[in-house]
Amino acid sequence: MAPETLKTLIRCVPDFPRPGILFRDITTLIGHGEGFAASVGLLAARLGPAQAIAGIEARGFIFGAAVAARCGLPFIPVRKPGKLPVPALAIDYALEYGTDTLEIDPGAIAAGQRVAIIDDLIATGGTALAAAKLLSQAGATVTKALFMIDLPDLGGADRLRAAAIPAEAILEFAGH
């Protein structure tokens, strides 16, 4: 299935989570078996020399775990705080209105392991950059960041590239 067709499977929800935002909802894509399978295949084809996949909670788990399974690679969940049952490595990062935290199990990463980050969407890039820093602190080498959707007007993929992390997306949507 071509990316142009996959784009038609993305639901656009106006004024969510607040007025003026046009939310790109992947629920309709993952609910379409052929479309979801094609999405996983397209992401896997762009993976490069990764030895593991890190998926960012929550929707990055959907695509990341599927790509990891397809490629026979380990999956590393990048979690919201308080979700891991072991002592976690954490990083705080800035959001548009406040801060948030990401955590990983430091035992899930081998020193020098080549890890690709996968998430459903990149907007400003803050969460993906924080995940990359966290993975690097754990000893990983982040090889690439892959997304189903890029909102290029918000500059997130460019911020990753400026940090020497190759970033690619299957689909682009103009605007916010």
Describe the structure.
By secondary structure, the chain is of the alpha/beta class. It has one domain (49-172): Rossmann fold (3-Layer(aba) Sandwich). The protein has helices spanning 3-7, 27-30, 33-45, 59-71, 126-137, 156-162; strands spanning 11-14, 22-25, 52-56, 75-78, 89-95, 98-104, 114-122, 141-150, 167-172. It has a five-stranded parallel sheet, sandwiched between helices. Helix 3 packs across helix 4 (59-71).
Task: Give a quick precis of the structure.
The protein has 176 residues and is of the alpha/beta class. It contains six helices and nine strands; from the N terminus they run αββααβαββββαβαβ.
Summarize the biggest pleated sheet: 5 strands, parallel
CATH architecture label name: 3-Layer(aba) Sandwich
What is the distance, rounded to the nearest whole angstrom, between the alpha carbons of the first and last residues?
26 Å
Q: What's the rounded overall pLDDT mean?
A: 96
- Helix tally equals 6
Q: Report the helical percentage.
A: 25-40%
Question: Order of SSEs, N→C?
Answer: HEEHHEHEEEEHEHE
Within the largest sheet, what's the order of strands?
Answer: 4-3-7-8-9
Q: How many separate domains?
A: 1
pLDDT < 50 stretches: none
Number of strands: 9
Structural class: alpha/beta
CATH topology: Rossmann fold
Strand content range: 25-35%
Give the radius of gyration: 15 Å
> For the record, what CATH class applies?
Alpha Beta
Bulk shape = globular
